[in-house]
Amino acid sequence: MTECTATRLSFEGVGRRRVEADFSGGQVSSDGGVLVLREADLRIGLTERLAECFVDHRDDDLIEHSVKELIAQRVYGLALGYEDLNDHDLLSRDPLLATMVGKKDPQGEHRRCRKDRGLGAASASTLGRIERTKPDANSATRYDKVVCDFDRLRSKFVQALIDSFEHPPERLVLDVDPTDIKLHGNQEQRFFHGHYHHYCYLPMYLFCGDYPLSVKLRPSNIDGSLGVVQFVAPVVEQIRDAFPNVHLILRADSGFCREELMAWCEAHGVDYVLGMARNSRLNEAISMQLEQARREHLQTGRSARRFRNFRYRTLKTWSRARRVVGKAEYMDKGANPRFVVTSLSAREYEKRYLYEELYCARGEMENRIKEQLDLFADRASCHNFRGNEIRLWWSMAAHLLVVTIRRDALSGTVLEKAQAPTLRTRLFKIGAVVSVSVRRVYVRLSSAFPLQHLLALVLQRLQLPRPAS
Questions:
Q1: DSSP helix/strand/coil, 452
Q2: Does 397 share its domain with 449?
Q3: Looking at the structure, do residues 381 and 441 belong to the same domain, yes or no?
Q4: SS3 assignment, position 122
């Protein structure tokens, strides 16, 4: 039988040795890798920038946790695997996390209220005030009065992409895509979606490579492309202000093949490659190529592809004829025709390259959205819609820290392509004994940590100055 007392835990022995434990180890954190997250944050000034996007109407004399500290605690927590606000009721006792978010009293010895002493960081209720604040809150509001400016948030993420270039890029490809967030409660603007077969939100994401640029939370009772021009336009404008000569290409699936978006791109010098839903006219346009692919498949037993360029215009919705690339593919399961519409010229972008290399590369967008979910972007458990949108931005911020670590510190290492969950388990979750004195916070990392040399290299690289852009 396992014997448990207040001072000792006894477990089944191993051979002749007894296995015992107690709670005398001192202040031990399981998240020693938060040191890495803070260095990545300092490298790009992320939480400092994000704090500028909030208007704080609280009384200065009563503030114990600044907006920057609250943001850092929430974002670091997501990267470390703490998905819910409730987790921070225990995390607030971790002196290492409190130190990393900037607390000068990481053990909470001098907190104003006696009940808060021993809590170096913010509690769940304090962190949640940002998510609960209404847009019209002011200094007269009783509790929740830290107001978020979503437009400024977006601009900070776009600026992070701009700052990542040492020299102006020649071409940037922007990927836009929606996804679903399943809902389990009675959240505001909750609707059932027939395609996903559950109640959900339908957020829209914008990425450039693996860099997160923008996100917009939307209810699910809408067309998936609704509001895409208003979503993309300010990002394009900000990038163009920084890089006037950059060639921009917008890439999306057939859900965004709409006249409004294509006409806007053509009017603003943005090229596009968009998927198209199949119909009888499109299928007829590549019927000869599809027959050729079928014959090749019968001869070789392997899937066969043919491509065709042609001009196409819908009967009612398009304002003009546009270039379409049709893929005529035949496989064991039969015909598999696919189509994309593009503003790119056939002279510069050959039809096979445009489809296989340029358009199909948008599949990587799915990995970026999956990484958002790995950073708990699907935890839309706030009752109010605005609070759930702020949570999406927290996950975007955690993702940007992960991207910074991968790009600036992990290139050429065994973890250079690691996703957020892998980095969390192999690099962030490190046992650490924390000693706090008047002069320093000393962190003793686990001697058994297997990636000690890699961690040292990561910290060294993150502390190097970034090349001037």
A1: helix
A2: yes
A3: yes
A4: coil
> How does pLDDT run across 49-80, given as a tens digit for each residue?
999 999 999 999 989 999 999 999 999 999 99
In a domain, 10, yes or no: no
Tell whether 16 is covered by a domain.
no
Chain position carrying tokens 């835990």: 9
Does one domain contain both 401 and 367? no
Between strands 247-252 and 171-178, the pairing is parallel
> Residues 339-390: pLDDT tens digits?
999 999 999 999 999 999 999 999 888 889 999 999 999 999 999 999 999 9
* Domain housing 385: 28-148+375-462
Q: What's the rounded Cα separation, in Å, for the pair 324 and 343?
A: 9
Nearest residue to 104 via CA among 454, 441, 425, 376: 441
Q: Is the dihedral of CA 421, 426, 428, 429 positive or negative?
A: positive
What would the two tokens of residue 253 be? 């699936």
Q: What is the DSSP string of 24-76?
A: -S-SEES-TTHHHHHHHHHHHTHHHHHHTTEEE-S-GGG-SS-HHHHHHHHHH
pLDDT, residue 2, reads 47
Taking the CA atoms of the chain, what radius of gyration do you get in angstroms?
Answer: 26
CB 297 within 8 A of CB 331: yes
- Grade residue 22 by pLDDT with cuts at 50, 70 and 90: confident
Q: Which of 337, 355, 374 finishes a domain? A: 374
| Same domain for 112 and 87 | yes
Tell me how many domains the chain contains: 2
Same domain, 244 and 324: yes
In a domain, 7, yes or no: no
Task: For helices 34-44 and 385-409, give the axis angle rounded to 10 degrees.
Answer: 90
Domain annotation covers residue 334: yes
Q: What is the reported pLDDT for 25?
A: 85
pLDDT > 90 fraction of the chain, expressed in percent and rounded: 90
What is the pLDDT, as a whole number, of residue 3? 47
Q: Which two tokens stand for residue 176?
A: 């836009």
pTM of the model: 0.93
**Where among 346, 374, 402 does a domain terminate?**
374
